[in-house]
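It is worth pausing here to work through a concrete case rather than discussing structure prediction in the abstract. The textbook approach is simple: state the sequence, then state the predicted structure, then interpret. We follow exactly that order.
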Amino acid sequence: MKALSVRQPWVHHIFHDDKDVENRKWETNYRGDVLIHSSKSFDGPAADKRSFLINHPHETFGAIVGIVEIIDCVSDMDSDWFNGPYGFVLRNPRLINPLPCKGMLGFFTPDIDFSQIRPIEDAA
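Step two, the predicted structure:
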């Protein structure tokens, strides 16, 4: 299964706030499930990162944290989350037990033990 690196706080919004699109500068024809890798870096100023970590102390960085289905790639969308120029339309987000790994640009095959992918409710 392929993976896609996404920076916080956007990963949090995908899995907790119904973020239904991942904005990119490039198009894709890929459709189907993709692992979401939470990047080590944060998208925003240091003050925003500090506030995010205070409010969400258990959020993970530098790991595969979930699975989401990409159902389309659009250049316009009626969503508060869309700002383009392209958007990967997302549905069915599922958190998993985090699996540390290094991220990459674009879609990539993560260096993880795929047999360890477990839904978060089964992680304990």
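Step three, interpretation. Strands lie at 3-8, 21-24, 32-42, 63-74, 86-100, 107-108. The CA atoms of residues 40 and 62 lie 5 Å apart.
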